[in-house]
Specification:
This protein has 3 helices and 10 strands, in the order E-E-H-E-H-E-E-E-E-H-E-E-E. The chain is of the alpha+beta class.
């Protein structure tokens, strides 16, 4: 039997597979195993790939992927963050004249990455500062619930967040 993977990276264990099967009951949506990838359209794939490699320490998958349903008009450069297994597909579309991102239009608003603890946000803010990436610094709030966040933007103005919420 072929191994099944969590996030496309780590093999799923028997307990996870059992939980998946238990959730798929009649009248209920089938279970999902987790987040697999984030795939924004960017204006300059190479510049964005270099930025994500530098900021997140992602590594590039050595082949380009065709855009599903538009194979002749676009492709994606795929990167992976090796510690978490998070996958990012930076998409180029021939029909995109290089417009900047605007979250006030229908579509993506932002992407948030979880961190393990509050101190990680301070470490991330320092890291982003050292790279010259403008960021909010770690912000703590309790509106509407307690959480902490660092907010910054990629080269296409896509808002990214590093997010911590105490469990």
């Amino acid at each position: 039997m072929a191994e099944r993977y969590d996030h496309g990276v780590r093999p799923l264990d028997a307990d996870t597979l059992t939980r998946e099967a238990a959730v798929a009951e009649p009248g209920m949506a089938p279970a999902v195993a987790g987040y697999h990838h984030f795939a924004p359209t960017v204006s300059d794939v190479e510049a964005s790939a270099q930025w994500y490699e530098r900021v997140f320490g992602m590594t590039r998958v050595p082949v380009a992927f065709p855009h599903h349903g538009g194979e002749k008009g676009g492709y994606a450069v795929v990167l992976m963050e090796p510690r978490s297994g998070i996958v990012l597909g930076l998409h180029h579309h021939d029909g995109n004249p290089g417009q900047g991102f605007d979250e006030s239009r229908t579509g993506l608003d932002h992407m948030a990455f979880a961190v393990a603890g509050r101190a990680d946000l301070d470490a991330w803010a320092s890291w982003l500062d050292s790279l010259g990436v403008e960021n909010s610094g770690a912000v703590d709030t309790d509106d509407p619930v307690p959480y902490s966040v660092v907010v910054f933007r990629d080269p296409d103005n896509i808002q990214l967040e590093l997010f911590y919420m105490a469990g």
